[in-house]
Each structure stands twice: as C-alpha cells, then as structure tokens.
C-alpha cells in the first residue's frame, strides 16, 4: 500500500484488494465442475461476495467472531458467543480457530447440507429480494369491519 494514503483512501484500497482476492476465489468456483449444475452461479457468487465483504470487519479475508456477531445482530438474530463459535465451527469444519474463510463460506452456501448460518442468510436474501420487488402504493389500510 502506498505510504501517503490515509483514512478513506487507505480503506478503499484495502477493500479493492480484498475484492480482487474474493473475485479470484469466485473464478475458481465458476470453473469447478462440482458446481456446474448450480443455477445462476455467477450472480449468486457476486451476492455472496458482497455479503462476505460486509462482515469481514478486519479486511483480513476471514469473518471472525465479532464479524459474525455483527452479522447476526444486523439480521435481528442475536446469538451468544457459544452459539457463534458453534456456527463458525460448523462452517469451517473446525479447521480454523474462530474464523470463517471465504472458501468455507461459499462451500456452505453452495453445498447441499443446511447449517443454521446458511438458512439464516438464505432467508434474509429471499426477504430482501421480496422487499425489492414491491412496486406501487402500499395496500389500503383495513379494519376489522372489512373482514368477511
């Protein structure tokens, strides 16, 4: 990193480096024959990358305990530290200590096995896409007298 960068410029530089790394992992997953049957793989990988980058708080390429805690709180699902550690262990297969790597994250999201974190993120993604599709004025207010 250039020595004269500070603040926002340095942060932007770190984020672009992180995105570059994650893009290379996405390219690997796109060429992996295990995921050839996956519908909309490229667009799903892009969504997963954005989710991952949002919660990689230290920009080191891993979601740590605090990043996962932040993710769950943002989704409105507070978890204890013990539950968070269990989720991390479930995703990473116990290979890393208290972090989720991007490859593990993608394997979880694209895999057939359902874990609690995958279910939460998939539910949030569906909810978000439904909210985005709502067009037009909100429905009229109804009262009890409107019921049949």
Task: Please tell me about this protein's structure.
The structure is a single chain. A two-stranded antiparallel ribbon has the order 1-2. It is globular. Helix 1 (7-31) runs antiparallel to helix 2 (41-55). The model has no long low-confidence stretch (mean pLDDT 79). The chain is mainly alpha-helical and 148 residues long. It contains 6 helices and 2 strands, in the order ααβααβαα. It has a domain at 39-127: Recoverin, domain 1. The chain starts with 6 loop residues before the first helix and ends in a 15-residue tail after the last helix.
Terminal Cα separation, in Å?
67 Å
Assigned CATH superfamily of the domain at 39-127: EF-hand
Low-confidence stretches: none
Rounded average pLDDT = 79
Q: How are the strands ordered across the major sheet? A: 1-2
- Count of helix runs: 6
What order do the SSEs take from the amino end to the carboxyl end, as H and E?
HHEHHEHH
Mind telling me the CATH class of the domain at 39-127?
A: Mainly Alpha
* Biggest sheet record: 2 strands, antiparallel
- Helix content range: 55-70%
Which structural category do the helix and sheet elements fall into? mainly alpha
Query: How many beta-strand segments?
Result: 2
Strand content: under 5%
Could you say which overall geometry the principal axes of the C-alpha atoms support? globular
Question: What is the annotated CATH architecture of the domain at 39-127?
Answer: Orthogonal Bundle
């Amino acid at each position: 990193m250039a020595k004269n960068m500070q603040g926002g410029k340095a942060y932007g530089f770190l984020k672009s480096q992180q995105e570059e790394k994650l893009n290379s992992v996405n390219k690997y997953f796109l060429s992996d024959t295990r995921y050839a049957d996956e519908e909309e793989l490229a667009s799903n990988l892009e969504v997963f990358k954005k989710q991952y980058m949002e919660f990689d708080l230290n920009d080191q390429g891993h979601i740590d305990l605090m990043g996962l805690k932040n993710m769950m709180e943002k989704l409105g699902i507070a978890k204890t530290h013990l539950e968070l550690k269990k989720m991390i262990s479930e995703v990473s297969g116990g290979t890393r200590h208290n972090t989720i790597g991007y490859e593990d994250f993608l394997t979880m999201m694209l895999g057939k096995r359902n874990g609690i974190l995958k279910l939460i993120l998939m539910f949030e993604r569906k909810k978000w896409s439904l909210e985005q599709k709502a067009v037009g004025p909100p429905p009229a207010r109804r009262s009890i007298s409107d019921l049949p």
